[in-house]
Design goal:
Structural class: mainly alpha
Distance between the termini: 36 Å
Order of helices and strands: HHHHHHHEEEHHHHHHH
Number of strands: 3
Strand order of the largest sheet: 1-2-3
Radius of gyration: 22 Å
């Protein structure tokens, strides 16, 4: 790996707070481009726009997903902008490259009976099931990222004010996220049942911090237990946002809840049709057939308002 790539990645890690997943992806993309340029007798700092365009074209034939090409372009543009700021270059060869258009797909979400089944009937038994229920309540009700859930400590939970202090959001951004009485009840029970010297909120059976990988598996298996395939933590996050929108929350409130840096990210949920929102609103359990009650939506139910490990640990 070249010195420039190493310095750039260190800048992203130390000053931008970029996630390890993004760092790995950017490193891979830049090293691949560097190798291609080297075969042509060039390097990253001597690259021309035509060389980068040809490189992307060759890669797109093997991995044609537009999202993959957009990520590679983001890596190149960010690298060359950093090089400009550092005075290493005078012009970026990647700035005028056009990104492929996004399909703008609306994220997948669960309807209300489905998500309640998953949250209230998780996998495993005993204290592990209690842990899983607390995890799922917070994932759906607060709309947290799985990496944020994995990083939570006991001290981040304020049961009196019903707030979770998210200190490990994207870009190291901190935010306070509210949750409602049902989440507070199960979190209180879990904290009492798992009391010990560990600071981590969610623990595995060995008493160590529960990993992102295990959280993915818990969510997936809880979905399968309730007859739902391909349920993942991000689907619960999307479900939280969708149910907030259907319950009357505006996009700015959803943006703050989810910790989106840009409102354009949140606006994906505005692509839901009016009929879809009506269907979500009406898809309440029989006990509240007139629509969402305060205890059924994320706003009332739980709100009053990419690392892997080699060994599974759940």
């Amino acid at each position: 790996m070249s010195d420039e790539i190493q310095q750039f990645l260190e800048y992203l890690r130390a000053e931008r707070g970029v996630s390890p997943h993004t760092l790995r992806a950017y490193r891979r993309d830049l090293e691949r481009l560097s190798e291609d340029l080297c075969e042509q007798g060039s390097n990253l700092l001597e690259a021309r726009i035509g060389q980068i365009r040809s490189h992307l074209s060759r890669l797109a034939r093997r991995a044609p997903a537009p999202s993959t090409t957009r990520r590679r372009l983001a890596a190149y543009r960010t690298f060359y902008r950093w090089a400009l700021r550092e005075g290493i270059l005078e012009a970026s060869p990647a700035e005028r490259l056009a990104s492929p258009k996004s399909a703008h797909r609306v994220p997948r979400f669960l309807d209300l009976p489905e998500v309640l089944d998953v949250v209230e009937r998780p996998v495993q038994e005993g204290w592990l099931q209690l842990r899983n229920k607390a995890l799922l309540e917070l994932a759906y009700g607060a709309g947290l990222r799985v990496s944020e859930l994995a990083a939570l400590d006991r001290g981040d939970i304020d049961l009196t004010e019903r707030l979770v202090d998210v200190r490990s959001g994207k870009g190291r951004k901190q935010r306070l996220v509210p949750f409602g009485p049902p989440a507070a009840e199960v979190l209180s029970a879990w904290i009492e049942a798992s009391s010990g010297e560990q600071e981590a909120l969610f623990l595995n059976y060995r008493g160590q911090r529960l990993s992102v990988r295990s959280m993915h598996r818990i969510v997936r298996d809880s979905g399968v237990k309730n007859g739902l395939s391909e349920v993942h933590p991000h689907a619960l996050r999307h479900t939280c946002a969708t149910h907030m929108l259907a319950g009357g929350a505006d996009l700015r409130a959803i943006q703050e809840q989810l910790g989106h840096a840009s409102l354009s990210t949140t606006q994906r949920y505005a692509q839901l049709t009016a009929q879809q929102l009506v269907d979500v609103y009406r898809a309440s359990p029989p006990r509240a057939s007139g629509g969402f009650s305060d205890s059924d939506t994320p706003l009332g139910r739980n709100l009053t308002e990419e690392e892997r490990e080699d060994e599974p640990d759940s």
